[in-house]
């Protein structure tokens, strides 16, 4: 596998990183490889300034084999299959037993994974050419998400379709008759159950058969749950898992798989009485697809974590016969063997996404707030100050000259405030894209090499397609799976290589940066103890990627970290105050995007909503309208570093929402939203003008289902779907109008004021 390129900026280039990385030659490298390794000038050697005495961090426990996407799906399927048989009380020669091995082997020596056989059957009948299904919804339009409809043909059709079994015989290199035997003995009853569920519930989406979980529990949860998790689970599960209330406990029962309580009348369909024998919820039979890392309660010091590695993990990096250290290539092969081997039980610990709490704990770079005593022997006071203010100090990079993130008047943990990563042997970061497709910089302070893999933007679609083909049901249940950082596939896997995905690797050493570019999937692992930190930043060329991320997030239901509309509008406003602050091309791009979004919102209100909504509210400053009050002209001084105390204080804002999110697609409602009362006229009145965005979002996402916050697009669809015709709106007097009688249109920002700003900006650009 080819390595990413290494770049060597001069001192002057290194002192202006945004300009340097914006050079066309560097941009071309970023687009082609996805990331580059940056070696600082020889004299840039900042002292490691973490407070070793007080710095503490939690670790995630990673079971490497379960991170493999196919391993996890195969184990999920067996758990779901066993739960189905427990709940159904099936009594045949297979169903009355618990299956532990997801691989079924015949006496002939042939065999197959149950999940693989089940999925290939579904794929065959959900392929357009085999099923006649064009994957459209009831209005003849393609679904507005990445979820795929699952068609379950009659079991008789599955058994009798000779083309199916001939194709599967070639696919698995197993005699078709033997595959049919396995399907009939193990899968057929479960298949029929799923088919009946989709039919009875009127939905051909797996996700529609599940109940919404605020605190989902994985079917592959570790047995040794930490005390913290036990305590939190006890408090979370006091109320019904569906309605979240603990009223009428006599009508409540526990799932015999996940132990969560349910009111019998909250189930779909509801039950008249508590059933005898085992009862298991749909999320445990159909599977919610959720998987997350367990976090240990104990907080480690760096010394303690290093000693742990020396005592327990050093053998992983040595040749068992000679005791010699393994090379990076040998460690790489060993790591992927662990990931691919379902029988492997190795768990590792990773101090990932660590947000420090005080001076000397937020970053390993020099800062105003903390100077370790031994640093004086490594550099002079003047050098220390220079490192403190240097733009490639990751405390400063997000706000460096040319970055757009200072356009927000707040810090964002993990993006503009560094996150720390304390690695151990084979601890891993799974395939993911950076939030909102921003660029990232990762610096290694000390320790063993970190191995990286990059998939450039040109191969993003192929990678997405491959992962969805491997586990279509998992993505249907968890559309944002690849944003969760819990999934791996080896770049050396045959399926990966045959898919034509470009992939490159890098080996990062101390005092080296890895720079990732927009829409670069990346993953990797640590070859031993190390200490890294990372932040995000932007270039002017990133703006289109930021807009693309907003559209992509709507498809998967992922929340944006910040509001692109706000950022672009702020760029326009700042350019009016200081015309030379941004490149003209950037301002023009932001101007076009803001105008397009604003006009689209106005058209939606005029064309689709005016006949439905009668109540309109101006929220004003309740929802952070930056023109409702005077903004700071210089939100962050370009050459000034936030103190670590300020970083800590602003990092605490993560618990508060700055934006209102659509309940359905999770997009930020930048300009307006509709408060939709599901019960129509019989709704409970709410005075939302006094509510913060956090309170509004909590109210809309509560399990009582009273109301929804809807972006204009989703509200227009709701109106259209209720009328059954996408080409017309509901006219006043229509009998369905009562459904929307008390809904409220809420303006987040003043449209007239934005038009005024655009008018001034337009004249400025013309001039």
TrEMBL record:
Coiled coil: none annotated. GO terms for biological process: regulation of DNA-templated transcription. Its main location: nucleus. Residues 237-287 form the PHD-type domain. Residues 637-650 have a biased composition (Low complexity). GO terms for molecular function: histone H3K4me/H3K4me2/H3K4me3 demethylase activity; zinc ion binding. Residues 636-655 are annotated as: Disordered. SMART domains: JmjC, JmjN, PHD. It is found in: Nucleus. GO terms for cellular component: chromatin; nucleus. Keywords: Iron, Metal-binding, Nucleus, Zinc, Zinc-finger. Residues 4-47 form the JmjN domain. The keyword Ribonucleoprotein does not apply. This is Uncharacterized protein.
């Amino acid at each position: 596998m080819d390595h990413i390129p290494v770049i060597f900026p001069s001192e002057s280039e290194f002192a202006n990183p945004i300009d340097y990385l914006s050079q066309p030659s560097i941009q071309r490298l970023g687009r082609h490889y996805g990331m580059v390794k940056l070696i600082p000038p020889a004299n840039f050697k900042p002292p490691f300034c973490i407070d070793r005495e007080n710095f503490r961090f939690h670790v995630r426990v990673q079971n490497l084999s379960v991170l493999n996407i196919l391993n996890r799906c195969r184990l999920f399927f067996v758990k779901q299959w066993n739960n189905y048989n427990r709940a159904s009380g099936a009594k045949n020669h297979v169903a009355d037993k618990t299956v532990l091995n997801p691989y079924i082997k015949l006496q002939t020596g042939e065999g197959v994974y149950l999940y693989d056989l089940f999925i290939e059957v579904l794929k065959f009948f959900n392929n357009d050419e085999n099923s006649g299904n064009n994957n459209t919804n009831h209005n003849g339009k393609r679904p507005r998400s990445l979820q795929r409809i699952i068609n379950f043909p009659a079991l008789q059709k599955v058994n009798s379709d000779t083309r199916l079994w001939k194709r599967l015989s070639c696919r698995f290199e197993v005699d078709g008759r033997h595959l049919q035997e396995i399907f009939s003995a193990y899968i057929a009853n479960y298949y029929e159950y799923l088919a009946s569920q989709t039919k009875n519930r009127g939905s051909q989406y797996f996700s529609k058969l599940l109940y919404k979980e605020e605190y989902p529990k994985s079917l592959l949860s570790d047995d040794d749950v930490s005390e913290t998790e036990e305590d939190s689970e006890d408090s979370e599960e006091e109320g019904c898992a569906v309605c979240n209330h603990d009223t009428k406990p006599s009508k409540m029962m526990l799932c015999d798989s996940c132990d969560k309580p349910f009111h019998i009348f909250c189930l779909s369909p509801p039950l008249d009485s508590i059933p005898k024998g085992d009862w298991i919820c749909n999320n445990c039979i159909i599977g919610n697809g959720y998987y997350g890392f367990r976090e240990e309660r104990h907080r480690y010091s760096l010394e303690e974590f290093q000693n742990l590695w020396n005592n327990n993990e050093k053998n992983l990096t040595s040749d068992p016969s000679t005791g010699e250290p393994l090379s990076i290539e040998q460690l790489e092969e060993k790591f992927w063997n662990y990931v691919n081997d379902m029988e492997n039980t190795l768990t590792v610990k990773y101090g990932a996404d660590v947000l420090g709490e005080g001076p000397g704990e937020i970053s390993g770079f020099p800062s105003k707030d903390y100077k370790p005593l031994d640093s004086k022997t490594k550099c002079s006071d003047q050098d220390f100050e220079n490192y403190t203010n240097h733009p490639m100090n990751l405390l400063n990079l997000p706000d460096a000259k040319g970055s757009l993130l200072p356009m927000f008047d707040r810090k964002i943990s993990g993006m503009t405030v560094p996150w720390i990563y304390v690695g151990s042997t084979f601890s891993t970061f799974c395939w993911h894209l950076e939030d909102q497709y921003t660029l990232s910089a990762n610096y290694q302070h000390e320790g063993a090499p970190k191995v990286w893999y990059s998939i450039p933007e040109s191969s993003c679609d192929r990678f997405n397609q491959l992962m969805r083909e491997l586990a279509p049901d998992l993505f249907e249940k968890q559309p944002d799976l690849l944003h969760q950082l819990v999934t791996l596939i080896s770049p050396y896997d045959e399926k990966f290589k045959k898919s034509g995905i470009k992939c490159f690797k890098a080996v990062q050493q101390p005092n080296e940066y890895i720079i990732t570019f927009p829409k670069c999937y990346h993953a990797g692992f640590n070859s031993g103890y190390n200490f890294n930190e990372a932040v995000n930043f932007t270039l002017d060329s990133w703006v289109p990627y930021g807009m693309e991320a907003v559209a992509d997030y709507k498809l998967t239901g992922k929340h944006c970290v910040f509001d692109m509309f706000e950022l672009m509008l702020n760029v326009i406003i700042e350019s009016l105050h200081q015309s030379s602050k941004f490149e003209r091309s950037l301002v023009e791009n932001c101007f076009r995007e803001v105008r397009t979004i604003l006009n689209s919102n106005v058209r939606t209100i005029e064309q689709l909503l005016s006949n439905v909504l009668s109540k309109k509210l101006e929220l004003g400053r309740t929802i952070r309208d930056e023109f409702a009050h005077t903004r700071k002209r210089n939100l962050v001084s370009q050459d000034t570093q936030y103190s670590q105390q300020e970083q800590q204080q602003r990092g605490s804002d993560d618990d508060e929402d700055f934006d209102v999110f659509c309940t359905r697609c999770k997009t930020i409602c930048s300009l307006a939203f509709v408060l939709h009362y599901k019960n129509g006229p019989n709704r409970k009145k709410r005075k939302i003008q006094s509510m913060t965005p956090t309170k509004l979002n909590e109210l809309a996402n509560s399990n009582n289902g009273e109301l929804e916050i809807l972006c204009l697009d989703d509200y227009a669809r709701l109106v259209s779907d209720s009328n059954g015709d996408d080409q017309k709106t509901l006219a006043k007097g229509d009998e369905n109008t009562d459904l929307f009688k008390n809904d409220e249109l809420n303006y987040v920002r003043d449209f007239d004021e934005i038009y005024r700003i655009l008018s001034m900006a337009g004249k400025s650009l013309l001039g």
